[in-house]
Design brief:
By secondary structure, the chain is of the alpha/beta class. The chain folds into three domains: 3-167, AICAR transformylase, duplication domain (Cytidine Deaminase, domain 2), CATH 3.40.140; 193-267 and 328-384, 3-Layer(aba) Sandwich (Cytidine Deaminase, domain 2); 271-318, Helix Hairpins. Helices cover 35% and strands 21% of the residues. It has helices at residues 38-58, 82-87, 98-108, 111-114, 127-135, 148-155, 212-226, 251-267, 271-274, 284-294, 300-303, 321-328, 346-352, 368-378, and strands spanning 3-6, 17-20, 29-33, 62-67, 70-76, 117-121, 138-143, 163-167, 176-181, 184-189, 232-237, 240-246, 334-338, 356-361, 381-384. It has a six-stranded mixed β-sheet with strand order 3-8-7-6-4-5. Helix 14 links the parallel strand 14 (356-361) and strand 15.
């Protein structure tokens, strides 16, 4: 198959729409279920590149949760703690495969943003992973293959309309890529830079102790940034992205946005949140929304009289600012990647508040000395990669 007609483009008024291969090449995909759209394919192809690179860099199964052409979460298949199982709503599913753990992490990092996601998996989708996907609100999944029982589970989703795409793992695109804007064709070499430990060798801070686990987290951050709309920064902890900031014009705003997401990820593990007394039968999305509001500044939106009764069995106590700060002070050893240099030390100040200890960024700012000094003041380890990772 050389081309596939689509219902419409980014919006219903944008017709005609299709994906196709030039010359005599065939599309490297097979649609096994559903009818993916224009944005679905954008998410699928970007997500597949991300997880493929994560697998190559770490040797572990990888998954990502994409929304609007940027990842909401990305992770490798490390085991889940009991706390993570609970905040990712998989504590009732028994022992999970490494691939299922990867998707639980990717989906669970920012559940608000992952609502209605498109999933990419580095490995053949197994039954455990399909069971998690089945229970979440999602638009589709792309993977190099599907176990027969897993495929049947996925085909039953959305009354048989769930999008399931199988991609040829041996497919390699041309080294030059093109796109059109306003009728004008842009051309550039593909960003095929390998992200590996060597990229982290130029440590510019006084503290040069970069353990292997932190190096893996930094590689996960950098690979995630390769497929995140710029400006972008990514906080990573224990093999998974915990806060991704995408598409911000100001880098410090991006650092704040991603840092707030990282904070929310950790706050969801606090006893005050784990023990929230939700009413029986509450929908998963409503539960996620309530948690997000409860740990934020607008907590009275779910604690006001007449409102909390529709969410909780009994009215929870306010999770005070002081209690939240005390809990967040326990978050340590976080890794942070940036797709371009930090122009000022204020980014480092904000990162420190979210437990960042390790940083990878290109370097090259006229204020590099200020950024390095700020890292030194906090005892951080920072590597200059020398490589920018803009993605548009």
């Amino acid at each position: 198959m050389k081309e596939m007609e689509l219902k419409y483009g980014c919006n219903p008024n944008q017709k005609p729409s299709r994906i196709y291969m030039e010359g005599d090449k065939e599309l490297p995909i097979e649609v096994l279920s559903g009818k993916p759209g224009y944005i679905n394919f954008l998410d699928a192809f970007n997500g597949w590149q991300l997880v493929k690179e994560l697998k190559e860099a770490t040797g572990l199964p990888a998954a990502t949760s994409f929304k609007h052409v940027s990842p909401a979460g990305a992770a490798v298949g490390l085991p889940l703690t009991e706390t993570l199982k609970k905040i990712y709503w998989v504590e009732d599913m028994g022992e999970l495969s490494p691939l299922a753990c990867a998707y639980a992490r990717a989906r669970g990092a920012d559940r608000m943003s992952s609502f209605g996601d498109f999933i990419a998996l580095s490995d053949v989708c197994d039954v455990d992973t399909a069971r998690i996907i089945k229970r979440e609100v999602s638009d589709g999944v792309i993977a190099p293959g599907f176990e027969p029982e897993a495929l049947e589970i996925l085909k039953s989703k959305k009354n048989g309309n769930y999008n399931v795409i199988q991609i040829d793992p041996a497919y390699r695109p041309d080294p030059v890529e093109r796109k059109q804007v306003f009728g004008i064709t842009f051309e550039q070499g593909r960003n095929e830079l390998p992200v590996n430990r060597e990229l982290l060798s130029n440590v510019v801070t006084e503290n040069k102790e970069l353990p292997d686990s932190a190096a893996v987290d930094l590689m996960i951050a950098l690979i995630t940034l390769k497929y995140t709309q710029s400006n972008s920064v990514c906080y990573v902890k224990d093999g998974q992205a915990i806060g991704i900031g995408a598409g911000q014009q100001s880098r410090v705003h991006c650092t704040r946005l991603a840092g707030q997401k990282a904070d929310n990820w950790f706050l969801r593990q606090a006893p005050q949140v784990l023990n929230l007394p939700f009413i029986d039968g509450i929908r998963r999305a409503d539960r996620d929304n309530a948690i997000d509001v409860y740990i934020g500044d607008d907590y009275m939106d779910v604690l006001a009289d007449g409102r909390w009764e529709t969410i909780f069995k009994e009215k929870p106590a306010v999770f005070t600012r002081e209690e939240k700060r005390k809990w967040l002070d326990q978050m340590q050893g976080v890794a942070l990647g940036s797709d371009a240099f930090f122009p000022f030390g204020d980014n480092i100040d904000r990162a420190y508040k979210s437990g960042v200890k390790y940083i990878a960024e290109p370097g090259g700012s006229v204020r590099d000395d200020n950024v390095i000094d700020t890292c030194n003041a906090y005892g951080m380890v920072m590597a200059f990669t020398g490589i920018r990772l803009f993605h548009h």
